[in-house]
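Hi, here's the filled form for the chain we discussed.

Project: internal
Contact: R.S.
Residues: 186
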Amino acid sequence: MIITILAEPRSGSTNLANWFCSKQDFTVLFEPMTNSKMKWFKGSTPPSEWKYSTEHLLVKEILGNGLHFNELISISDKVILLYRENEREQLDSWINATIENNWGDQWVYSSLKNEKEEKSFKEVKRVFKEHYLAKDYFRVSYEELYYGSGFKRVLEYLSIEGLENIGFPYGKKYRINLETNIKTLL
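And the returned structure, exactly as it came back:
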C-alpha cells in the first residue's frame, strides 16, 4: 500500500511519519520531492517508479508555494491531509523554524515577527485549503491528532491489520513556553 501524508508546515507530520518509521512493514520517505537534502531518495525518478522492499510505502510531503503533488496522489492508495487549526501557534513555529533554522528541536517561544515569512506562510495555508482540504481526502488536524481521537481515526482509515495505537505521539512537543513553565514551578 502507498500512503501519502500531505501536510501544512509545522503540523506534526514529521512526528507522525517517525511513528510509522518504527513499524517493521513500512518504508518512509521524508519529503522526497521537496527536500534537496533527502537521504532516502535521490534523483528525479517519478513517484510511480519509486522502489521499496516493505509491504507499505509512506511518503510524507510538506506543501510549499508552487508545488504540486498530483502524480504522487494518483499513485497513492490512501492520502492523509494534515493541517493545523491554531494558525497563530503554527505561524509562531514557522517563524521560529525559518529564522533560527530549527526544524526539529525544542525552542523557547518569543513573539518573533517577520512580515515576509508571515505572508509566505499564509499563502501556503490558502493554497492547501483551496487545492487539497476542499477535496474529498481524509483529513485530520494537528489538534485532533495530538489532543483528541485523530490518531485512532488515522489507523481506522488505513485499516492495516495489526497496526495498533502503541507509542504515539512519537517524541515531544517542541515549543516551550517559559511563562507557563515558571508559573508551574511556583
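Let me know if anything looks off before we file it.
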